[in-house]
């Protein structure tokens, strides 16, 4: 995950040492050089030769931008160019990059090297373009002035400022040469006349923040924002593609080599299946656990109920005993007490079911369960029974699961 | 005879020129070819990313790895040899068992070129990316609105359009559009994603005609790869030339790791310091106690 947030906040604290070193280096350079600007020294071109070159070229050889810069350089003579810091900033980069950096620094301020190109551009594009350029240049120059003014690094100043500001000084310097960038962009840009079908590039109408990616570290909303951006591009591209007379969607019967092989897709499918079954299994297990919990609860309740009823009964017996009072009373009418107790326990119920009608008469019971007669071989097959057609059970007993489920 | 033939052929070529000129004026073509290569010592993951990009972009040409000692400017010559006008170069740097990947995008031979730090890489091999698309179909490019805000971002957008946009002239392209490559600018970084376009066919649309909560007609499924690019610098030339932009927020990974290490070291040294302090304090206390004990020794008290 990107760490820029945390790291950014740490820069100042942790870079102090390094930056101090950088500043010291720069100061040393300053003492040694004691000349105007460091940028010319990098190039290996002395100031004198540069001035000679300028003389030879004459003012015609320079455009407005270069002239501005020349004047500006003269103004700054004696003070130091801040761009040196930039190089020291990246000193842990590899040599190769440093080389490039040095090259970059040489003309970082858009000096005479670029002028020839600029001139050509101007000639090609006519007066209107020149005006634009000049405006850009003005902006750029003012920016540069601001930049330079933020870090006037003389020896005394460097000693005066505290460490935090020093860190700021060294980290602040960056290159963003807008006019040069726009020039380069115009140079290599594809023609505006290119129809959409050639480039297929769609720029979103909403910023990514508007699409919901407020927090970079919120993966879900961020990815959703990217998704929305892509989807919008597709929806906008489709009519344009169709307008250009090119089919958009792939028909179902069009088969061709795919980016991912069938083996890979099979793996993906397998993984998805596995995930699905895993989810189902865990769901099932969860349900089972819950059921178990419920079952235990029911069991507990039943037990509690039983205990409660037992307790109630004992209480009742006790209260009855207390009502009857004294040991004498108990001894005197033991049978009476028993009857009373039974009555109390039975509650409002009718008395003993002695008078109640029996379920079956004696004869019926005898017929059913048998009384007297031959007991042996009653159930064994006879000739008749074997010949008789088999009558299946009228109501077969349902399966166990049904019986359990029905409860 | 020969002069006649010559004259005829001349005439023919002139006609051809006329013919070819007329449609050319009408039809401007976008011709791009990208040279994809890496530096020596690239790890397998990064190699897989390269393969993925190649599979997605039919207008790329792969070249052998180049040694880290050769200057990057030679890449321009390689591009010329392979008749490519774009270069996608994966540069690796090793720092104590960790390999950082830098991506260069360059317009050969005149520039500009951009160097990115590539992070958070997920290749297409990952099973979480379930999408798939035709090999060689042209991808739609989707850019965030932010790419129009700053000149340097505009430049990056143009560069992406030219390197990642598959031109119609490419030989290996397939018809139909079934994937979209998106570039979003967020948190100072460029996030790359690629999705498959899944469209509902007519029958399902018909089936869902009466249904109220029907799913959208187009959905996307991620294909991969995905990665995050942090722009470091933009150079005017191809692999060289003056810097026209450098990212103020970029910290080299080595520096970040160094800071992390220093933090750890600081924690350790702090702990050690406090340990030493407490040890000393205990020592002092015991010394003092011993001094007291010396005064209250039985031999002294009951002298």
UniProtKB/TrEMBL annotation, chain A:
Instruction: Decide whether keyword Coiled coil is in the record.
Output: yes
Q: Where is the composition biased (Acidic residues)?
A: 31-46, 83-101, 110-148, 331-345
Keyword line: Coiled coil, Nucleus, Ribosome biogenesis
Composition-biased stretches, type Basic and acidic residues, lie in: 10-30, 273-285, 298-318, 346-356
Q: Does the keyword Transferase apply?
A: no
Q: Name one GO cellular component term.
A: nucleolus
Quote the subcellular location field of this record. Answer: Nucleus, Nucleolus
Q: Where is the composition biased (Low complexity)?
A: 68-82
Q: Name one Pfam family in it.
A: Ebp2
Region (Disordered) location: 1-49, 68-165, 273-407
Q: Name one GO biological process term.
A: rRNA processing
Indicate where this protein is primarily found: nucleus
Where do Basic residues bias regions lie? 286-296, 371-380, 392-407
| Similarity section | Belongs to the EBP2 family.
Cross-referenced PANTHER family: RRNA PROCESSING PROTEIN EBNA1-BINDING PROTEIN-RELATED (PTHR13028), RRNA-PROCESSING PROTEIN EBP2-RELATED (PTHR13028:SF0)
Q: What is this protein called?
A: Putative rRNA-processing protein ebp2
* Organism, as annotated: Wallemia ichthyophaga (strain EXF-994 / CBS 113033)
TrEMBL record, chain B:
Q: Where is the composition biased (Basic and acidic residues)?
A: 257-279
**Superkingdom of source:** Eukaryota
Chain ranges passing through the membrane = none
Q: Where is the Brix domain?
A: 32-240
Name the PROSITE patterns on file. Answer: BRIX
Q: Does the keyword Transmembrane apply?
A: no
Q: SUPFAM superfamilies of this UniProt entry?
A: Class II aaRS ABD-related
GO BP terms = ribosomal large subunit assembly; rRNA processing
Region (Disordered) location: 1-29, 255-303
Report keywords, A-Z: Nucleus, Ribosome biogenesis
State its location(s). Nucleus, Nucleolus
Q: Which InterPro entries match?
A: Brix, BRX1
Give the GO molecular function terms: rRNA binding
Question: SMART domains under this entry?
Answer: Brix
A Gene Ontology cellular component where this protein is annotated is: nucleolus
Pfam families assigned to the protein according to its UniProt record, in alphabetical order: Brix
Per the record, the similarity remark reads: Belongs to the BRX1 family.
The protein here is known as: Ribosome biosis protein brx1
Q: Which organism is it from?
A: Wallemia ichthyophaga (strain EXF-994 / CBS 113033)
């Amino acid at each position: 995950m990107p760490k820029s947030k945390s790291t950014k906040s740490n820069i100042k604290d942790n870079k102090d040492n390094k930056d101090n070193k950088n500043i010291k280096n720069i100061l040393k350079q300053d003492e040694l050089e004691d000349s105007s600007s460091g940028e010319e020294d990098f190039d290996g071109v002395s100031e004198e030769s540069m001035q000679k070159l300028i003389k030879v070229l004459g003012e015609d050889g320079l455009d407005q931008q270069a002239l501005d810069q020349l004047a500006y350089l003269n103004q700054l003579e004696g003070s130091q160019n801040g761009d040196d810091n930039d190089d020291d900033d990246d000193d842990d980069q590899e040599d190769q990059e440093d080389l490039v950096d040095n090259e970059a620094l040489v003309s970082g301020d858009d000096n005479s090297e670029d002028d020839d190109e600029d001139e050509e551009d101007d000639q090609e594009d006519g007066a209107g373009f020149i005006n634009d350029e000049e405006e850009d240049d003005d902006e750029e120059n003012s920016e540069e002035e601001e930049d330079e003014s933020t870090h006037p690094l003389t020896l005394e100043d460097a000693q005066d400022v505290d460490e935090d500001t020093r860190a700021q000084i060294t980290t602040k310097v960056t290159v963003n040469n807008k006019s040069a960038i726009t020039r380069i962009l115009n140079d290599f840009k594809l023609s505006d006349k290119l129809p959409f079908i050639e480039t297929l590039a769609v720029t979103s109408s909403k910023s990514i923040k508007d699409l919901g990616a407020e927090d970079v570290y919120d993966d879900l909303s961020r990815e959703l924002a990217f998704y929305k951006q892509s989807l919008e591009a597709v929806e906008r591209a489709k009519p344009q593609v169709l307008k250009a007379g090119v089919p958009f969607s792939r028909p179902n019967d069009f088969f061709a080599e795919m980016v991912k092989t069938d083996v890979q897709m099979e793996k993906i499918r397998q993984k998805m299946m596995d995930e699905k079954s895993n989810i189902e299994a865990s769901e099932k297990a969860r349900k089972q656990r819950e059921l178990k919990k419920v079952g235990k609860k029911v069991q507990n309740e039943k037990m509690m109920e039983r205990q409660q009823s037992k307790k109630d009964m004992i209480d009742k017996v006790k209260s009855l005993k207390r009502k009857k009072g004294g040991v004498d009373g108990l001894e005197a009418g033991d049978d009476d007490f028993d009857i009373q107790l039974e009555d109390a326990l039975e509650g409002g119920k009718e008395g003993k079911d002695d008078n109640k009608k029996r379920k079956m008469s004696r004869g019926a019971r005898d017929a059913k369960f048998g009384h007297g007669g031959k007991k042996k071989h009653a159930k064994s097959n006879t000739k008749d029974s074997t010949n008789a057609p088999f009558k299946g059970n009228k109501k077969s007993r349902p399966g166990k699961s049904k019986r359990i489920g029905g409860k | 005879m020969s002069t006649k033939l010559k004259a005829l052929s001349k005439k023919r070529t002139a006609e051809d020129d006329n013919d070819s000129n007329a449609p050319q004026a009408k039809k401007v073509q976008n011709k791009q070819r990208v040279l994809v290569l890496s530096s020596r010592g690239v790890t397998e993951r990064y190699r897989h990313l390269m393969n993925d990009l190649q599979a997605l972009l039919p207008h790329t040409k792969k070249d052998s790895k180049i040694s880290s000692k050769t200057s990057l400017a030679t890449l321009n010559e390689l591009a010329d040899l392979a008749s490519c006008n774009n270069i996608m170069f994966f540069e690796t740097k090793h720092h104590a068992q960790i390999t950082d990947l830098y991506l260069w995008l360059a317009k050969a031979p005149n520039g500009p070129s951009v160097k990115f730090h590539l992070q958070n890489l997920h290749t297409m091999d990952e099973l979480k990316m379930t999408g798939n698309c035709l090999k060689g179909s042209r991808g739609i490019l989707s850019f965030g609105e932010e790419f129009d805000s700053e000149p340097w971002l505009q430049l990056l957008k143009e560069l992406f359009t030219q390197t990642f946009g598959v031109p119609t002239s490419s030989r290996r392209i397939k018809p139909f559009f079934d994937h979209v490559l998106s570039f979003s600018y967020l948190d100072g970084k460029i996030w790359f994603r690629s999705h498959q376009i899944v469209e509902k066919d007519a029958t399902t649309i018909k089936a869902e005609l009466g249904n109220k909560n029907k799913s959208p007609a187009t959905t996307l499924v991620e294909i991969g790869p995905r990665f995050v690019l942090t722009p470091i610098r933009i150079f005017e030339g191809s692999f060289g030339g003056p810097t026209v932009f450098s990212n103020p927020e970029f910290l080299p990974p080595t520096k970040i790791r160094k800071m992390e290490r220093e933090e750890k070291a600081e924690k350790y040294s702090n702990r050690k310091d406090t340990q030493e302090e407490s040890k000393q304090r205990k020592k002092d206390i015991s010394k003092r106690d011993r001094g007291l004990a010396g005064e209250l020794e039985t031999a002294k008290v009951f002298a």
